[in-house]
């Protein structure tokens, strides 16, 4: 099935009939023992049932400031009078949005949105109706510097937005007559093109903590202003929140996931979002939280990891990847917390996880197997003459905690292609390593001694979809299986004027299988 193929409504209904008949998931203890008995990965045949893309500049559940909620009509009046509003709310990390409902705009009017300090220093975007121009601006000691601008004509009413992800800033609009041909309402207008980093580093707490959400204008009437943490232009690296033994963590009858949220650019502009899903209605998947990380004096948005519940120690273990290639390299960071990590905007104090690797490491999977913590991850072995990465199986010291004495047990040295997206999953009474090979377009299967088995029977969408496969813990003893993954369809697919580049991608793709 190609990226343009969509399952028929009849097929989707048939495939999800079982889940709909039992919409309340059981806890692993109450459910029939999932994955036990004689079952191999090749016994399952997956079909796509749902494909969708959540796009939110601010996730509805995470809005920090809202003139409607606060009853802040005075703020809108101040802007109508030509003033600027600096709110008392600020972002936890440099992933933030300000969204303005522009009802009226004079022919020579303007509107601004961004982050502002008490002394007037700011980073913001501006739309100037008279010049038909949208700009990224940096304000320092009263001096305004245009970082980058584009010619754009907008006609009120429209929605205008400032977005910052890491050190990348962009302006976006919905409505107003500007249409580049993409499939989503939010049209990219301008980005700073990587120039802002030379002027300020919002990863540093001393710089970010001065700033508050702000907006203003001249000759403009606003209907509403909202601000909060940035959401996503797409999702990738979808990872089920699991119990330590690998079973799905179920809360209030819902599954939970972490996923990489695409920002205004590639990996550095992404961060980790927290989601929940009713498996009977996957398309209603809803963001309920965001994870950011603090280490080495920086505020970062690491991603491509997972969240594991360790009930015995009353904690959740958060893993995420961060860094750059070739230097300083990509590593895995880790931190712990409680149930608060399942919702809200959280800043996790993290440190480097000492995984053995050669050049870099990503896509970690963590499971507690027979009382010992086990890992799978992609080990980058070479940068030149080409990037090469292969999966590794490792384990912590016997009797030790998950971050103690980690040693490699098996490495893949036989498969010729790069493969990543490591997942550890039990089928029947045996554990297997699943990875994704984009070159051969298949999900590879190996046992815990790194011996190859028949690949997973499932559609392979565009890019490198990760094999996040798991059985639903259904109380009546049936064993439907799901794969929740993503593709690499670009946000600006079909755009006449693309600005964001590679990495801003990710439809969520849900597949279902029953035992043959």
Give the helices and strands, then pairings:
Layout: H1 9-15, H2 17-21, E1 47-52, E2 65-66, H3 67-70, H4 73-80, E3 84-86, E4 95-116, E5 122-128, E6 133-140, E7 143-151, E8 158-165, E9 168-175, E10 187-191, H5 205-208, E11 212-229, E12 235-240, E13 242-243, E14 250-251, E15 254-261, E16 271-277, E17 286-295, E18 298-300, E19 303-310, E20 315-324, E21 329-337, E22 344-349, E23 351-352, E24 360-369, E25 372-382, E26 388-395, E27 407-411, E28 420-427, E29 430-437, E30 442-447, E31 452-453, E32 469-471, E33 481-486, E34 508-513
Explain how this protein is built.
Residues 1-26 form the signal peptide. The chain is mainly beta and 516 residues long. It folds into two domains: 9-55 and 232-513, 5 Propeller (Tachylectin-2, Chain A), CATH 2.115.10; 60-229, Sandwich (Jelly Rolls), CATH 2.60.120.560. It has helices at residues 9-15, 17-21, 67-70, 73-80, 205-208; strands spanning 47-52, 65-66, 84-86, 95-116, 122-128, 133-140, 143-151, 158-165, 168-175, 187-191, 212-229, 235-240, 242-243, 250-251, 254-261, 271-277, 286-295, 298-300, 303-310, 315-324, 329-337, 344-349, 351-352, 360-369, 372-382, 388-395, 407-411, 420-427, 430-437, 442-447, 452-453, 469-471, 481-486, 508-513. A hairpin with a 4-residue loop joins strand 20 (315-324) and strand 21. The model is unreliable at 1-23 and 29-35 (pLDDT under 50).
How many domains? The number is 2
Residues in β-strands, percent: over 45%
Helix content estimate: under 10%
Number of strands: 34
In CATH, the architecture of the largest domain is 5 Propeller
Q: State the helix count.
A: 5
Largest sheet: 10 strands, antiparallel
Q: What's the CATH topology label of the largest domain?
A: Tachylectin-2, Chain A
Q: State the end-to-end CA separation.
A: 21 Å
Structural class: mainly beta
| Oligomeric organization of the protein chains | single chain
CATH superfamily of the largest domain: Glycosyl hydrolase domain, family 43
Would you state the CATH class of the largest domain?
Mainly Beta
Rounded mean pLDDT is 91
**Given the C-alpha coordinates, what overall shape results?**
elongated
- Indicate the radius of gyration in whole angstroms: 24 Å
Residue stretches low in confidence (pLDDT < 50, at least 5 long) are 1-23, 29-35
């Amino acid at each position: 099935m190609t990226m343009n193929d969509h399952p028929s409504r009849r097929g989707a209904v048939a495939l999800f009939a079982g889940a709909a008949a039992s919409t309340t998931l059981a806890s692993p203890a109450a459910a029939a023992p999932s994955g036990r008995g004689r079952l191999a990965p090749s016994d399952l045949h997956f079909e796509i049932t749902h494909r969708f893309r959540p796009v939110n500049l601010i996730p509805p559940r995470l809005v920090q400031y809202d003139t409607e909620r606060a009853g802040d009509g005075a703020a809108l009046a101040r802007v109508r009078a030509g003033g600027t509003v600096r709110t008392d709310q600020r972002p936890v990390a440099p992933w933030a949005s300000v969204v303005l409902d522009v009802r009226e705009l004079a022919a020579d009017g303007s509107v601004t949105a961004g982050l502002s300090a008490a002394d007037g220093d700011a980073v913001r975007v501006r739309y100037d109706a008279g010049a038909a121009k949208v700009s990224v601006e940096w304000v320092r000691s009263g001096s305004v510097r245009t970082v980058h601008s584009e010619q754009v004509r907008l006609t009120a009413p429209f929605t205008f937005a400032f977005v910052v992800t890491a050190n990348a800033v962009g302006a976006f609009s919905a409505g107003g007559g500007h249409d580049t041909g993409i499939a989503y309402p939010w049209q990219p207008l301008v980005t700073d093109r990587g120039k802002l980093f030379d002027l300020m580093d919002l990863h540093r707490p001393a710089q970010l903590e001065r700033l508050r959400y702000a907006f203003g204008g001249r000759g403009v009437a606003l209907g509403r202003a909202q601000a909060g943490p940035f959401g996503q232009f797409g999702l990738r690296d979808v990872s089920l929140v699991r119990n330590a033994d690998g079973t799905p963590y179920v809360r209030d009858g819902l599954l939970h996931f972490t996923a990489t949220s695409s920002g205004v650019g590639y990996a550095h502009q992404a961060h980790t979002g927290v989601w929940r899903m009713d498996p009977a209605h996957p398309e209603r998947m809803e963001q309920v939280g965001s994870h950011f990380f603090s280490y080495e004096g920086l505020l970062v948005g690491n991603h491509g990891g997972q969240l594991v519940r360790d009930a015995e120690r009353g904690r959740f273990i958060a893993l995420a990847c961060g860094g750059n290639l070739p230097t300083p390299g990509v590593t895995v960071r880790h931190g712990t917390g409680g149930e608060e990590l399942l919702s809200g905007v959280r800043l996790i104090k993290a440190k480097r996880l000492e995984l053995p690797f050669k050049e870099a490491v990503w896509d970690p999977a963590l499971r507690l197997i027979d009382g010992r913590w086990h890992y799978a991850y992609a080990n980058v072995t070479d940068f030149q003459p080409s990037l090469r990465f292969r999966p590794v199986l490792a384990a912590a010291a016997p009797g030790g905690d998950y971050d103690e004495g980690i040693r490699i047990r098996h490495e893949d040295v036989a498969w010729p292609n790069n493969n990543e997206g490591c997942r550890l999953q039990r089928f029947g009474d045996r554990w297997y390593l699943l990875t994704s090979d984009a070159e051969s377009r298949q999900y590879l299967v190996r046992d815990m001694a790194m011996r190859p088995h028949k690949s997973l029977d499932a559609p392979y969408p565009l890019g490198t979809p990760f094999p996040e496969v798991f059985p639903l813990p259904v109380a009546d003893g049936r064993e439907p299986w799901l794969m929740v993954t993503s593709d690499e369809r670009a946000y600006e697919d079909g755009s006449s004027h693309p600005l964001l580049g590679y990495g801003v991608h990710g439809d969520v793709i849900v597949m279902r299988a029953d035992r043959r």
